[in-house]
Amino acid sequence: MTADKTRVPNRLVHEKSPYLLQHAYNPVDWYPWSEEAFTKAKEEGKPIFLSIGYSTCHWCHVMERECFEDEEVAELLNRYFVSIKVDREERPDIDSIYMAVCQAMTGHGGWPLTIFMTPDAKPFFAGTYFPKKDRMGLPGLVTLLKRVHALWKDNRDDLTEVTDRIVQALQERPTTTHKADPDALVTKAYENLRMSFDSVYGGFGSAPKFPTPHNLIFLLRYWYVHRDSMALAMVEKTLDAMYRGGIFDHIGFGFSRYSTDSKWLVPHFEKMLYDNALLAIAYLEAYRATRREKYADVARRIFAYVLRDMTSPEGGFYSAEDADSEGEEGKFYLWTPDEVKEVLGEKDGERFARLFDITERGNFEGKSIPNLINIQVSASDREFIERCRKRLFDTREQRPRPFRDDKILTGWNGLMIAALAMGGRILGDIAYTEAAEKACRFILGKMIRPDGRLLAAYRDGSANIPAYADDYAFLIWALLELYETTYKPQYLKKALELNEALLELFWDSQDGGLFLYGSDAEQLIMRPKEVYDGALPSGNSVAALNLLRLSHLSGRSELAEIAQKLFEAFNPEVSLSPHAHTFFLTAWMFYKSRPKEVIIVADGATEEACRMLRIVNSSPDPFVCSILYTSQHRDLTEILPHIGNYRAIDGKPTAYICEDYACQPPITDPDELEKHFPPEVILKHE
């Protein structure tokens, strides 16, 4: 968005958030979420108008153009309300609470999120996007502001009573004591996904379709445990269809946030870091399971996009790219046949346009989104496509780019670090490992206070918002992946240290589970705990899996006991909709699987030792924890004191395997080790 800097800026001009800065020159007298705003509302007896969004949100931009840049709307807001703007990516705690209000009051949610509330932050009205004037049955913001002002003036006591009921309802935990068998919940989640599976285009349900990669990760685990070919078939169909569709950027790579149609053709064009991280993990896991090179190729293309366009000079990863450019959604990504021919020439241009469905009629507002939905690319086409793609990419780079939100979020960086570390390990590409390590150094160097407190968001040289449970959980996940890729003890040590801080700051000692924000953070009208695995897996779900992996890698059984408490705390909630908690159930499958623990001891990083590691790491078995112990890894004794008792037998690299609390005889022959980690899975039925 282009701000009108001829206007006097409001208070948001002093903020770091790109989203808040986009509104800094609105005529609305915006406040950031602050004590100053609430004090003003109390002193002047005014209600608060709260608007929550994020910088790459298309409808947030629309509402800004129609309403917040409008003098009439601004005059009403400035006269009768105290207006607060919040970046949901900086303050997921605020967003979580008021999104729950919106969903409870209206049955749906989304952004921009619009809330009216009392000076003590208690909500009495919620909605999402509003145009300026009444339109097609939707009240305009002008109408709404006048109605709310009248109600506040004449019926304030009634509104206050409503707010008290809303807050009380939100604070009440589910009263059911019903406990479901977790194994049965795993089966039910699988059956629900199977029933909603789109056998024609892949994915689940109808339009709009979201990638939801953790559903696919769950299905890959289910396939491995139950040897069910349908689980794998659903994953493969979905991964293939998403890549072939327009949701994947075939010219510059990377995935958009979701598809507006059922066949993955027309995306909502914004690109989010977290989607690309989780999708890279899903494609890597599919490659590990099937050894199909096409999945490795898609993961590489995701990484190419992220390392080229979404990486800061310091190594951290930016948050998102906008759907809009030059005021139009998707304009940057669209092509006409003439534009393609102008770059490639008549013959090559016609061939490329035919392959990628670029037609005179177009498939999106008169232009075309490149896609491969109806084309099978032959081996002879691939070299041609790549040669042409590079030329089209270079041309596209001359277009005005969509806005990029360059703030660096700890949690989302954790996901991308985890993905890159897995890429380095599974694909054998050290460049991915190095990028993951560089980003990790940035987070640990720039986003931890001197007292050790992790911070959530960094931009323009500073970070000051305390991190949330999700930030800790996702970063610990990243550290675990880095450890099992590099085997550097420092990553395992840091994971244990951050996990200890996570439990200290966020654990609910009364009912179990992790609160979203810490005991040392600003205390809001309620303190939510989230376990729903939505666009991202929840912090509680990821923490459960982290705890189990840490328990196996460090030998600390008390961590597995805490994971068990997590499973018990959220069992009633998960039992209501198992398919909405797939990452949580993925953690349960890990718990139930009795993972193999593999310790490889060697005098050094010899070729035979490396071969043993490759055997373990290339196995389709997702329930393995591995440790490398050589003379360069003596620090491990601080975490695992007993590891000093392990020896390389006869000077040969030696693998010690423990499973289901029983240790097997040591193995010095890599061929013998491979029998324990076969490269293929035998299915029940094809």
Structural class: alpha+beta
Average predicted confidence as pLDDT: 93
User: In total, how many beta strands?
Assistant: 19
Oligomer: single chain
Global outline: globular
Strand adjacency order, main sheet:
1-3-2-4-5
Count of DSSP H/I helices:
24
What does this structure look like?
49% of the residues lie in helices and 10% in strands. The protein has 24 helices and 19 strands. It has a 5-stranded mixed β-sheet, with helices on both faces. α4 (71-80) runs parallel beside α6 (141-154), α11 packs parallel to α16 and α18 runs antiparallel to α19 (489-506). It starts with 17 loop residues before the first helix and ends in a 10-residue tail after the last helix. The mean pLDDT is 93.
